[in-house]
Design a protein that fits this description.
This is DUF4191 domain-containing protein. Residues 211-235 are annotated as: Disordered. The protein has 235 residues and is α+β, with helices and mostly antiparallel strands. It has helices at residues 2-32, 36-58, 61-92, 98-103, 142-159, 182-187, 195-208, 211-214, and strands at residues 111-118, 124-130, 133-139, 165-170. The chain is built from 8 helices and 4 strands; from the N terminus they run H-H-H-H-E-E-E-H-E-H-H-H. Helix 1 (2-32) crosses helix 3 and helix 2 runs antiparallel to helix 3 (61-92).
């Protein structure tokens, strides 16, 4: 009996935490998307109304009403999630370290090491390893990050000669990838490595070491006031 009460209490706490998270996400999204409430509600009402209307036409309003309610909740969740994600990208865009936050949430199968290379101007290169190979994601001044990318590629060529290396420069200019499309771009890359090969590649790179081994940084966007030690480029 006590165990059952304990389980129910845990479930209630989990549900309360989930609802709180949804509320916080809604508040954050509403700052940059003031119409989100009307849009999500409109999608739900329209979906439910259409299914209920069909139910009356075919003579099964109860069944179609239940189905309409379920589909309405699902549609509202999908629309809310997409607009919340878009708002989050909009708020992160332009901040140093924003790409690292995106890479950290790319999904299973990828191992991300933020800030493997950086200079005093806060131009930075992050590294992700997955079945597509190695992806170097740079953010900062397009002209300066090219040098950082070239340097990192040389290191990769010495250590993992049999693994493809891709590079992405985050931005909205020609030849660049917008922050909100970085994840999609990486997931579309052809998969050429097996699971064991990915593990071996990560082990080799981990043995090489990186900037993070010597200078811990918080996850997500880096503080704008952060300064690099003297000496120019690191790594």
């Amino acid at each position: 009996m006590a165990r059952k009460a304990k389980t129910e209490g845990a479930d209630s706490a989990e549900n309360a935490g989930r609802l709180k998270q949804i509320a916080l996400t809604y508040k954050m999204t509403r700052r940059s998307d003031s119409k989100i409430g009307f849009i999500v509600a409109g999608v739900g009402i329209a979906t439910f109304g259409v299914l209920l209307g069909i139910g009356f036409v075919i003579g099964h309003p109860v069944y179609l009403g239940i189905l309409g309610f379920v589909l309405a909740v699902l549609a509202m969740a999908i629309i809310f999630g997409r607009r919340a994600e878009r708002a989050a990208f909009g708020q992160m865009e332009g901040q140093p370290g924003a790409a690292a936050a995106v890479l950290d949430r790319i999904g299973r199968g990828w191992t991300t090491t933020p800030a493997v290379a950086m200079n005093r101007s806060q131009d930075v290169v992050h590294r992700s390893v997955g079945k597509a190979g190695i992806v170097l994601v740079a953010e900062g001044n397009p002209n300066r990050v090219k040098g950082l990318l070239a340097s990192e590629k040389k290191k990769m060529a010495r250590i993992v000669v049999d693994v493809p290396v891709h590079d992405i420069i985050v931005g909205n200019g020609e030849g660049q990838v917008p922050l909100k499309k970085v994840r999609t771009k990486m997931l579309k890359l052809p998969r050429v490595l097996t699971g064991p090969q990915v593990t071996t590649t990560n082990d080799r790179l981990r043995a090489m070491g990186d900037l993070m081994s010597n200078m811990p940084l918080p996850k997500g966007p880096m503080p704008k006031g952060m300064r690099m030690p003297r000496g120019g480029k690191m790594r």
